Amino acid sequence: MEQVALCACDDYEQSKVDLAVSKAVDLLGGINKFIKEGQTVVIKANMLMKCGPDKCATTHPSVVEAIGKLVKQAGASKVIIADSAGGPFTEGYMNGIYKASGLKGTADKNGFEMNDNFNSFEVSLPNGKVAKRFLICDCLEKADVIINVSKLKTHSFTGFTNAVKNMFGAIPGLTKVEMHGQFKTLDVFGDFLYDIQEYFKDKLVLNLTDAIMAMEGPGPSNGTPRKIGAILAGVNGSAVDVVGLKLMNIDPKSMPTINTAIQRKFIDENLDIKVLGDNIEDLIVQDFKTVMPNNFKPFANYVPQWLQGTLHRLTTRRPAVNRHKCKGCKKCFEHCPVKAITMVPTKKGGVPKAKFDYKKCIRCFCCQELCPFGLVKVKTGIVYKVLHIGSNKKKSN
Ligand code: SF4
Ligand code: SF4
User: 324 and 278, same structural domain?
Assistant: First the structure.
């Protein structure tokens, strides 16, 4: 049976986080079970975008500090903090995120390194289900061991993001956008996430989740911080995801990526997981504001094929921007994987502003992640709201 350690942690005070992280790792057998002397260890954090830790879109530096210190105590020769964010995988772009996220300060204070290798590497995965060859960040390829330190959040495309989705950041920069264009539906995208898991299965030794402050509502970047007060740790990323979902009071089987994990035998179908440490019932946030994953097709069995596209558009969330506020920077336009955005002048002239074509839009929400001004919001129509009320919550007994 899979095991996941759960340790309560009230806030980000460093001594409390150190204690919770070391307790969680000890419950799994201790840090020396995962790290050997002399190894180069990459801590794969979530560095989605340039913002401070208070926004709760990125892994909090105190959690990275806590696990980094343990890794050093175990004799690692190098501790490198790395990720590839939503934008370009370049020194200039990533340095801004390193600084804003607080991770650069943590690295300097503790003798860790921030990744400065922005090369990518094409890997081969002959048994990959949807991807046999794909690019990954070279720094992950060169690591002896990876520790995945994710942030627990809602996600407007996948429903939630935690351990497994965090490894999508192994794909360099804007190649991620191309991958969204290639793997348009959530089912296929989920398979790609598990191809990535397959590729890293020997190197990725531990998954740790920062769920002290999670994100609820329209995540992963425009949601609201919400306290859960927990640290999670586990060897199996899918098991860590299941426990994270339970903390958000979401039925794990309502999430397509968990069903993909079951189909591909990354986790057993009964989701049998032994939770070690603190009592999960004490930490579940009953009124956590969730979002449905973007594969909701309530009419699939009842209406003809030609009508399903229209109904799907009406019953799913969509990206939207207030055209008065749009700065016309073109970031969303340049990176939309299906060219669903055009830059159109307003009636008064001036800088052309972003306009969405919802017939083309595949709802990947890359534009939401990439807008440097946080202006792309997630819009829900009345049909969506009526159909989704409470639909991914656990059924009461
Ligand atoms: S408009 Fe935004 S959500 Fe739609 S496909 Fe383009 S990037 Fe993705
Ligand atoms: S990225 Fe944001 S500001 Fe830039 S064009 Fe798109 S919506 Fe406008």
Answer: no
Q: Report the alpha-carbon distance of residue 183 to residue 191 in Å, rounded.
A: 9
Domain boundary among 238, 261, 282: 282
Ligand 2 near 329 CB (within 6 A): yes
Task: Give the bridge partners for 7, in sequence order.
Answer: 231
Q: Whose CA is nearest to atom 5 of ligand 1?
A: 361
Using a 6 Å cutoff on CB, does residue 354 contact ligand 2?
A: yes
Condensed to tens digits (0 to 9), the pLDDT of residues 291-320 reads: 888 765 555 556 666 666 666 666 677 899
CATH number where 343 lies: 3.30.70.20
Q: What is the pTM of this model?
A: 0.89
CB 51 within 8 A of CB 102: no
What is the phi-psi region of residue 137: left when phi exceeds 0, alpha when psi lies from -120 to 50, beta otherwise?
A: beta
Q: Which atom of ligand 1 is nearest to the CA of 157?
A: 3
Number of domains in the chain: 2
pLDDT digits (tens, 9 = 90+) for 28-52: 999 999 999 999 999 999 999 999 9
Domain interval for residue 325? 318-379
